[in-house]
Amino acid sequence: MSVASPADLQRAGLFGRLSWTPGRGWLTLPVVFFLAAVFIFPLVLIGLYSVNLLTNLFGVPTNFSLVNWESFLPPGDNVFWGRFKTSMVITLLVSVMAVVAAYPLAYFLAFVARRRRYTLLLLILAPFFTSYLLRVIAWKVILANNGVINSALWQLGLREQGDGITWLIYSWFAVALVLFYSWVPFVALPIYVVLENLDTRLLEAAQDLGAGRLRTFWRITLPLSLPGVIAAFVFVLIPTTGEFIAPLLVGGPESYMFGNAIQAFFSDTPNWNYGAVLAMWLIAVVLLLVLLFGRFLSTDLRQGKATA
């Protein structure tokens, strides 16, 4: 039996430290590269356009410049900044209305529907298996001056023939209504999931201690369902910040949202540099909202676990 010398042991230890065995994490590299190419590279490209390092305008030199940012951000008198503020007000209003309307729906599915809950949930989501564009066009037919609502009013004699309700279409009301309709069923889903997984023993204990249904709801059900409410609010808030299809079809020139301005600069009146500024600003706002509400969501989740 041979005995290894100190030199052999030293060389073995050195080679052992230098040896490398690929782990399972390396299998994710293709997916990581693909996601980076799909999500990160376009953002970098838009960022380069926003500072004039790239341009689609002939004869415009490509050098670093913040002139478009200075033109958009306050205190500059910019129509697009005003459109951004108006769009955020409409977005917040639609998000609050959608959550308020979706909560009773989710509550009904979780606590009242019982065995029929999944059938009712399927019926609620069934219209949304069709294209979003087709549903917006359907609302345009309903709200038009010669549409379903005005025609019904004329037939019932509630308004004179040809005298339609003008603010039903091409207005902020039409934009808010279509967005509200589009998101309520989906907003109900995260609230429903939280309510369905709620520990019913807490509700039974509150009733045993003499609390009525309303008090039980305000003190137990609503606080424990806040993570779902916040998730639902973010669920509708984030997509509607960049919405442009609904305002384009049912909104008028005065009710276009911020997303329509971005779309116009990349298609109708091509100025990708200024459009990139608006797009980067909207991305920054969305990221800020995600971080803000994500912080509240994680806090509520920890509080809910501690209470349970």
Walk me through the structure.
This protein is mainly α and 308 residues long. The chain has one domain (45-307): Orthogonal Bundle (MetI-like fold). It has 14 helices and no strands. The longest helix has 36 residues, at 272-307.
Question: Notable features of this structure?
Answer:
MetI-like fold, globular, about 70% helix, 14 helices, mainly alpha, about 300 residues
Task: Please give the structural blueprint.
Layout: H1 6-18, H2 29-50, H3 67-72, H4 79-112, H5 117-125, H6 132-143, H7 148-155, H8 172-196, H9 200-208, H10 213-224, H11 226-241, H12 245-250, H13 258-266, H14 272-307
Summarize, please.
The protein has helices at residues 6-18, 29-50, 67-72, 79-112, 117-125, 132-143, 148-155, 172-196, 200-208, 213-224, 226-241, 245-250, 258-266, 272-307. By secondary structure, it is mostly helical.
The second-level CATH architecture is Orthogonal Bundle
What structural class do helix, strand and pairing data support? mainly alpha
What does the average pLDDT come to? Answer: 84
Describe the main β-sheet briefly. Answer: none
Find the CATH topology.
MetI-like fold
- Poorly predicted tracts of residues: none
The topology string of helices and strands comes to HHHHHHHHHHHHHH
Provide the β-strand percentage band.
Answer: under 5%
Q: Helical proportion?
A: over 70%
Compute the number of strand runs: 0
